[in-house]
Each structure stands twice: as structure tokens, then as C-alpha cells.
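Researcher: Here's a chain I'd like modeled. Treat it as a single chain, no partners, no ligands.
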Amino acid sequence: MRIRILAAVVVLANVVGNFSMSWGMKHRVSGEPLLSALLNPFVIAGIGLLIFWTLTRITLLSLADLSYVLPVTSIGYVLSALAGWVFLNESITWQRAAGIALITAGTMLVGRTAPKAKA
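Model: Modeled as a single isolated chain. C-alpha cells:
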């Protein structure tokens, strides 16, 4: 159960971190130098969350198999795409929707397995 909770934290930190950075970059002042965008609070929050994501992912990889962690946490790609669609008015073409469906199916399949393979 601890591994599944940590996996959820990894996914959430990734989704919110990437969304924050994207929001900050898309809502910066037009013509603002790219380097000054690093001072945007959303970009700063995104960077902080992605540092936290990296640390929690390292912890998760120390507890579970790589062949479990990568597919299970890939649901973050689905949630990120959906967040972009809902909050940033990004479009999801049928090809992207098909990819999202495949990722979701793979995550569900791997999520039903044990986090560590028996030796």
C-alpha cells in the first residue's frame, strides 16, 4: 500500500509541476525575455514540484521494480494532457486520444501486478 501511495504522490507532483510551468509560461507578459519568466510564481512552483517529483521518484524506484514504476506513473501523461485540455484550452486530436487510451490501458494492466517481482 505504501508503494501505491508513493506512486500517486509521484504522479500528482509531476502533473501539477508540469501544469504550473506551462501555465506560467503561457501567461507571461508578451515580449518578456524568457529568462525573466523564471521569476513567474507558477514557473517557480513548477520547478519546486518537479524537484520534489524527482526525489519521490528516486524513493519509489528504491522500493519497487522499474518495470512497475514507469508504466504505473505514466498515467501522469494522461492527467497532464487532460489538464491542458480542461484548463489551457489545448486540443486533443483523435491520435492523442488514442494514445491516451493506450497509456491508460497499460497503466491499468501493470497496476494490477505486484510492485516487486518475486525472486
